[in-house]
Specification:
161 residues; two-stranded antiparallel ribbon; 5 helices
């Protein structure tokens, strides 16, 4: 006899009353986004200690400006929360885990265009160091949201008799 939740990544499937909801995903987005932000802030500080200028072309002009330290903390947090809300769109759908994982991966790859599309005035070292927080945020946020959403897929809950 096969159990319907045998493919779940959790050892025991959650009971139907604990199926993930939007609030669960937003909370996970806050937690993983906060950790991503803290790690990204550490990377930012390490880069500054090593002499990376973090000068980029500002969005409202053609002048170079230093990326403020607080953006290294806040942008991953916002990405986690927005990711939680976007992942909630897949709740209860077939293949929700795969959808969230690959959509999140695609969004992360597209977000890497921001540092890479900087003008030639921006140093390559700055571009590389700006890509690291994108990778950290993807690594911590996307798989966790996909795992949570995966437990809402049809057939992944315990059948109560």
């Amino acid at each position: 006899m096969s159990v319907p939740w045998a493919d779940s990544v959790t050892p025991i499937a959650p009971p139907p009353e604990s199926i993930p909801h939007t609030s669960t995903l937003v909370y996970a987005g806050i937690v993983t986004g906060a950790w991503s932000g803290l790690l990204s802030l550490l990377v930012y500080g390490l880069g500054r200690l090593l002499g990376v200028p973090y000068e980029v072309v500002t969005p409202f002009g053609q002048v170079l400006g230093v990326v403020p330290w607080y953006l290294a903390l806040l942008v991953p947090l916002v990405a986690g929360v927005v990711g939680g809300y976007l992942a909630a769109l897949a709740l209860g759908r077939p293949h929700a885990k795969r959808i969230v994982f690959w959509a999140g991966t695609a969004i992360a790859v597209v977000s890497c265009a921001i540092p890479l599309a900087q003008s030639s005035e921006v140093l390559v070292s700055t571009k590389i160091w700006l890509l690291v927080p994108h990778a950290i945020t993807w690594f911590l946020v996307v798989p966790q949201l996909a795992r949570i959403v995966g437990d809402s897929e049809p057939g992944m809950t315990m059948v109560r008799e």
